[in-house]
Design goal:
Rossmann fold, 23 strands, Immunoglobulin-like, TIM Barrel, alpha/beta, six-stranded mixed sheet
Length: 698
């Protein structure tokens, strides 16, 4: 059902409701209105990287890993899988009269906040630090979730609107101050794209204030959203964020005033309980009945568009058997393979199983399910840890010796042990007896994540630095000192500086949180069944660079991310090696009636077939308002066989050639220049890859 027809039906339905009934529908736990044939509905569901918190479901790599694929086409397929499994679950639960939390079709995903500071624990939920990559990946996921038909398959939600990326422990009272330039250039770019281009059905407000006003009742943000961008869907608060108006931000005195403030600003749906005071606010003359009914109309419009009020839809026939189907699991594994980023390789990888007698698998995350799943995750009927994946790959070919090595962050694994590092001897013994060592270290959702969801010893889910916990640092040092060929597999959702261990290791593979079957995907890469091809969606800084970075609470972009970084990073945004040797041999711009494009030839001088990501960056020379460094403006994943060349044409949206001035306006300024390569056109990328980008004059 299209929006026009759905809105007409919603208006007719809400007109039949009493005021009390209309108010009841503004809660995430909307009760049934039996006399009108309206079933109960719980709006709260999650699908960050597959259907979450709702039992068994196919689990993809964590969102930051999905961004590392640089593959919007596959991201859209993953969104469709999540919607399909969400429909199957909704159909089954509804048939049993179960309309509880996590059973609906309104998914509060994706998280398109900008991962501006590497210490933010929730950065793993985002698509990285770049506005353009975030927008392209986010649009693809929304389109996959919502589908292409008149009936929405599921309703996606762009969150958290806006200017939200930590610190976690301040979010209920914090005021994020951002300039008009940073708002337009960085913080709002992806939101506008998802609203205008992907027609995202919902937008969720953030906990914090932005430039003085709470985000769930922010006049400036709402003006842009519903006014400039033409958003027609519904707006939902983050959970209990409206309560923060009087308890955290102190901009109101009580729940009645907070409810009135949010409703008058256009917040339709309350995740929380503050709208229990909405009727009192109306009776006190602080919010009109018309405003309340308008909010209810927008919510009912979404339900009609989903086909869950009235005659139903073709999606009602999706069977429960699609859950974790072989096809869905295969796509999740493909995503995990494409997400992993090869940061270093001196030739050790890929491992040749035929030449190995014993492989040692060491580390606290080697056999850890938590290191597969990240946060906001579903459940899997089977998990394949990295240790499992390596064991399966070498079955009948070589021995696998295993050792935990250390606790994830405690100094010993057993409280009764007399010594610290009580698993070190076992780890060293395994290394000494191995031909090659796979050292699996990193974090999990207990060390980085959302406030209240973690038990990290450093604070409210954010990181204090970019180092691994001390027990893991000691383990790496001692295992590497054994001198065996060693690859470090790093499972984390953010930038990590491995320090001397990174320099001494023969290879480093960034695995993110690769999903339920991530161990199989990682093994496929380690043993060369597939070449790594992921690219970093975030900058990996040296830990020492945190000293030069603005304070965590400073939302100015100066000194942050690859566009404004001071100095050279450990590993740059857009960087990632393969087992091939692909570079851009030629690149020229072309202007046709369809607009601007770049025709580039990628050549693989290596001996291994591989995917590679063609990346275009733009800089406006002699511009006073361009970012300090060239910015991503287009990309395309390309398969390049060994010893061959492939020529592709990549369209460039000419709006990406504009710069944002101090007033937040996009203007044509300076002389745009493009760079084509397999990474950024910076010195560090050229050092690491051996291939500089090609400059293209326009």
């Amino acid at each position: 059902m299209n929006r026009t027809e759905a809105k007409k039906r919603a208006e007719a339905l809400v007109a039949q409701m009493t005021l009390e009934e209309a108010v009841s529908q503004l809660s995430y736990q909307a009760p049934a209105i039996e006399r009108l044939g309206v079933p109960a509905y719980n709006w709260w569901n999650e699908a960050l990287h597959g259907v979450a918190r709702a039992g068994m479901a196919t689990m993809f790599p964590q969102a930051v890993g999905m961004a590392a694929m640089f593959d919007p086409g596959l991201v859209k397929e993953l969104g469709d899988i999540a919607a399909t499994e969400g429909r199957a679950k909704y159909n089954a639960a509804s048939a049993h009269g179960d309309r509880d939390i996590y059973k609906g079709l309104t998914f509060w995903s994706p998280n398109i906040n900008i991962f501006r500071d590497p210490r933010w624990g929730r950065g793993q939920e985002t698509f990285g630090e770049d506005p353009y990559l975030t927008a392209e990946t986010g649009k693809a996921y929304v389109r996959g979730l919502q589908g292409d038909g008149e009936t929405m398959k599921a309703a996606a939600c762009a969150k958290h609107f806006a200017v939200h990326s930590g610190p976690e422990d301040l979010r209920h009272s914090f005021d994020a101050i951002a300039s008009e330039k940073d708002m337009a250039e960085t913080y709002l770019y992806a939101f506008e794209a998802l609203v205008r281009e992907a027609k995202v059905e919902a937008v969720m407000g953030a906990y914090n204030r932005t430039n003085g006003e709470p985000c769930c009742a922010n006049a400036d943000l709402m003006r842009r959203l519903r006014g400039e961008w033409g958003f027609e869907g519904h707006f939902v608060s983050d959970c209990w964020a409206i309560r923060d108006f009087h308890e955290g931000h102190h901009v109101t005195d009580n729940a009645v005033d907070s409810a009135a403030m949010a409703l008058n600003a256009g917040c339709d749906l309350n995740c929380g309980c503050t709208y229990q005071s909405a009727l009192a606010a109306c009776m006190a003359g602080k919010v009109s009945e018309e405003t309340i009914r308008q909010c209810a109309v927008r919510l009912m419009t979404t339900r009609y568009m989903l086909g869950i009020l009235g005659e139903g839809s073709e999606y009602d026939r999706i069977p429960y058997s699609v859950i974790e189907s072989p096809e869905h699991l295969a796509k999740a594994e493909e995503a995990a393979r494409k997400a992993c980023v090869l940061l270093k390789n001196d030739g050790m990888l890929p491992l040749d199983a035929k030449k190995l007698r014993i492989v040692g698998v060491i580390g606290p995350n080697a056999d850890s399910v938590a290191s597969l799943i990240g946060n906001y995750h579903g459940s899997s009927s089977r998990y394949i840890t990295l240790q499992n994946g390596i064991q399966d790959a070498l079955e009948g070919k070589a021995r696998v010796l295993c050792a935990q090595g250390c606790h994830l962050w405690k100094d010993k694994t057993d409280n009764l042990s007399d010594d610290l590092d009580d698993r070190t001897a076992e780890a060293l013994t395994v290394a000494e007896n191995s031909d090659a060592v796979v050292l699996v270290v990193g974090l999990d959702e207990t060390l980085e994540g959302e406030q209240g969801d973690t038990s990290n010893p450093y604070g409210s889910a954010d990181k204090k630095d970019l180092l691994l916990p001390a027990p893991q640092r000691r383990l790496m040092e001692r295992v590497l000192a054994v001198g065996k060929p060693t690859v470090i597999c790093l499972t984390a959702g953010s930038a990590i500086d491995l320090g001397e261990a990174g320099e001494k290791a023969n290879a480093i593979l960034q695995c993110w949180y690769p999903g339920a079957h991530g161990g199989k995907a990682v093994a496929d890469l380690l043993f060369g069944r597939v070449s790594p091809s992921g690219k970093l969606p975030v900058t990996f800084y040296y830990n020492s660079q945190l000293r030069d970075m603005p304070d965590f609470t400073d939302y100015s972009m100066k000194g942050r991310t690859y566009r404004y970084i001071n100095g050279s990073p450990l590993y740059p945004f857009g960087y990632g090696l393969t087992y091939g040797d692909v570079f851009v041999a030629e690149a020229v711009s072309e202007k046709t009636g369809e607009g601007l494009s770049v025709r580039a030839t990628l050549r693989n001088a290596g001996a291994v077939d591989t995917d590679e990501v063609l990346q275009l960056y733009c800089q406006n020379e002699d511009s006073a308002h361009a970012p300090d460094h060239p910015r991503l403006c287009a990309f395309k994943r390309v398969h390049v066989p060994a010893g061959q060349s492939v020529t592709v044409t990549l369209p460039v949206d000419e709006r990406t050639l504009l710069v944002v001035d101090d007033a937040g306006k996009r203007v044509s300024e300076g002389r745009p220049v493009l760079y084509a390569g397999v990474g950024q056109p910076d010195r560090r990328t050229a050092e690491l890859t051996g291939h500089p980008s090609i400059r293209i004059e326009l």
